[in-house]
Known about the structure:
The structure holds two protein chains of two kinds. By secondary structure, chain A is an alpha+beta fold. Chain A has four helices and twelve strands. Chain A has a six-stranded antiparallel barrel. In chain A, strands 6-7-8-11-10-9 form a six-stranded antiparallel barrel. By secondary structure, chain B is an all-alpha fold. In chain B, α3 (about 45-60) runs antiparallel to α4 (about 70-85). The longest helix of chain B is centred in the C-terminal third of the chain and has 42 residues, at about 125-165.
Amino acid sequence: MNFFENNKRLILSLLTLFCIAAAIYTFNRAKPTVFQNAFGTVITPIQSFNASVVGWFKEKKDYINGVDALREENESLKKELESKSLDLSRLEMVEQENDRLTALLDVSSRYKQYTMVAANIIAKDTGNWYDTFTIDKGTRDGLSKNMVVLTGDGLVGRIKECGFNYAHVTSIIDDTDAISAKSLRTDDLGYVSGDLSNKGMCKMEYIDNTADLSEGDEVITSNLSEIFPPGITIGYIKGISSDKSALTKLAEIKPAVDFKHLESVMVITTDFSRIYAEDTETEQTTEAAK
Amino acid sequence: MRYILYLLILAAGFILQSTFFELVTVLGIKPDIVLIIIVSIALLRGNAEGTLVGFVGGLILDTFSPFIGVNAFIGMMTGYIAGSLTVGLYKENPFVPVTAVFTATLFYDFVFYVLNILLEGYTDFGYFFRTVILREMVYNALWTLPVYGIVCFINSRIELTERFKRKLF
């Protein structure tokens, strides 16, 4: 310890330099550093165990708090189910028709190619600023960076960093990502990102000024993104305002996923960049054939 | 021995913070146990150990952030300053660690805000001060005494074993 006591200033400046160098070196990297991967691999089983204990406590807490709420929810869900089953039979008809027409057109359907992996959330971000979390699947289970994470309700985010048996996911309510999106009803394009100054909500920017959006419109991922597959629900429009420049519109979006009670998610392991590349190749070949 | 124990305390704090402390979230804020541990050790053992523990604790927190270095830097500075400014205070008085953690949280979060959030284009400091920083200051201060007590206990045990080896007293 004497060595440290005598050279405090020197050590402080050396460590500062190290921090700056590490920040520059690790910024925007493709893979986690060896240090992160090792630490993450060791603590993942512990976090996994803790998460199950936390889940048990939450369950008990919800059980005590939620009986009345559950009864109401049950009622509304039953009503919803009725309307949904009507919708479903209609959709089956549409799907059959779609299949027939697709067969006629000879286009392969893209949506059936998705393969999914289920994962549990084992840890949340330690700070109070960002919304990232850790899932218990990693490169061992075939995941890699930029894979898309979702639930049955809608889009959750994408994998920011993939370790051996864990992966860090940035959610769409975090502001580090911008997702190309469009409104389902009017096909107006925009970019959705999280809003740190309005916790838990997203904002959709760069919407055309003439766009005819209204509250409650569903916003889905557009087909312009290389990471996110088209057609996944992001959320619903809650408010529309004009941008500061008054040239574009700005919409406040409530995410479809309930981020507060998120426990398990699905990861799409299909590699889209490859599919798109194949698509463009086939397009090119067909054009060349013409 | 002492440093292995420090590392274990920090890792335990990190794991608890990322899992169990989700259950004690108040107004969307959870306590920063690693920061409280850093300040506690800096108070008890001076700024040199505060610097090292702050650096290592920050590195552990950095495994979650987009790039390594920011938390390590702020943790290190917090440990150094907390150790330097509290020389000669009565560490037995509970008022000292609580005030130290209260102020250290302000420092830590302010620097974090400037280095991360402000540079992303969020200039409304007042909003973040009200919704995140102030709440976290109060909540961290509330969690200080139990954490400080545990760190004190471990520290006194280590000092007991070290007394024979190094003629400390």
